[in-house]
Design brief:
By secondary structure, this protein is mainly α. It contains two helices and no strands.
């Protein structure tokens, strides 16, 4: 962008210089025609004042062009700053949305972890219950075998 501004500045300077040269050529032509038609002789003081006035007019014109150039540059800078502020606001909004989404995902993970822990507790409790019943079954089987063995002895004794 800086190169564009420099390029525009150079183009504007050349355009200004060409415009000044064109104006000077036109002024010289007009002066030459005027001198040929109406030869006017003035003293040095009057000529110096006229030259000074002419130089001041040219300087004013150059300064006006420079002011216009600077105004365009200021407008471009203001536009760029507004665009940068807008992009910053958009980036901040996107960051805030991402942070909210991260919080939601974290909350979901915490909830999933809690549910998982509850399921694990249930599974452990059921495993303990199964182990307890398995022991009870083995105990009952041992009792049955013991009683069954005594029944067969009692039937053998009889």
């Amino acid at each position: 962008m800086e190169q564009e501004i420099k390029g525009k500045g150079n183009d504007e300077r050349w355009s200004g210089a060409i415009a000044n040269l064109t104006e000077m050529a036109s002024n010289l032509d007009s002066l030459q025609k005027l001198l040929l038609k109406k030869a006017v002789f003035v003293d040095e003081d009057t000529f110096a004042k006229a030259s000074l006035t002419s130089e001041q007019a040219r300087t004013i014109k150059v300064l006006e062009q420079r002011v216009e150039t600077l105004e365009r540059e200021v407008d471009a800078a203001i536009t760029a700053a507004a665009r940068a502020r807008s992009e910053k606001r958009q980036a901040e909004a996107a960051q805030k949305a991402a942070e909210l989404r991260a919080q939601q995902v974290t909350k979901e993970l915490e909830n999933t972890t809690k549910v998982f822990e509850l399921h694990m507790e249930e599974l452990r409790a059921k495993q303990e219950e199964i182990s307890k019943r398995d022991k009870e079954i083995k105990l009952l089987e041992a009792i049955i075998q013991t009683l069954g063995g005594q029944n067969s002895r009692s039937t053998d004794l009889e």
